[in-house]
Amino acid sequence: MEKDPRESGKEGFSQLGKDVRAFIGLETFARPENVREVRCTSDEVTALCPVTEQPDWYTVEICYEPKARCIESKSLKLYLHSFRNRGLFCEALASEILAEVVKALEPFRCEVSVEQKSRGGISIVATATWGTSSTGFAE
User: Fold this and answer.
1) Which residues of 104-134 are buried (b: 16+ CB within 10 A; e: fewer)?
2) Which of 31, 64, 67, 119 is the most buried (most CB within 10 A)?
3) pLDDT over threshold 70, residue 136
4) Is the pLDDT of residue 13 over 60?
């Protein structure tokens, strides 16, 4: 029996191509040759203010230099959506996302910037970083 071409590349993923609606972990795949930096951005992240329980909207940018693995985007989307009903300050959100990405990838370097959209006339940008620029790639 011939393999369905829509299934190609989905082996080993528990969320990609499936009706999964809850975060069960960041999934990764082997870094393609010559990929030196990956930047992921989402402006659809929400969390609750831990004091007022009012919703805050965020733009999250994750930039990393992969050693061996890259993040699969559907699992990242589900992860970012998992903050929807949690009470977190912007700074804590940046730190928590960074820790999860570093745990999943063990990259050379990672930076997570979280911009809280203006509320009460104040917007906040928090940046969490890990590692240093790689020396692992030959020029």
Assistant:
1) bbebbbbbbbbbbeeeeeeebebebebeeee
2) 64
3) no
4) no
Section 73-80 average pLDDT: 93
Catalytic center residues = 49, 56
Q: What pLDDT, on a 0 to 100 scale, did the predictor assign at position 138?
A: 46
Task: Give the number of domains in the chain.
Answer: 1
What pLDDT does residue 120 have?
86
pLDDT of residue 92: 98
d(CA 28, CA 26): 7
Q: 46 is in which domain, residue-wise?
A: 24-131
Which residue do the tokens 């692992």 mark? 136
Please provide the DSSP assignment of 33-101 as one string.
Answer: TT---EEEEEEEEEEE-TTT--EEEEEEEEEEE-SSEEE-HHHHHHHHHTTTT-B--HHHHHHHHHHHH
**Residue 114, SS3 per DSSP:** strand
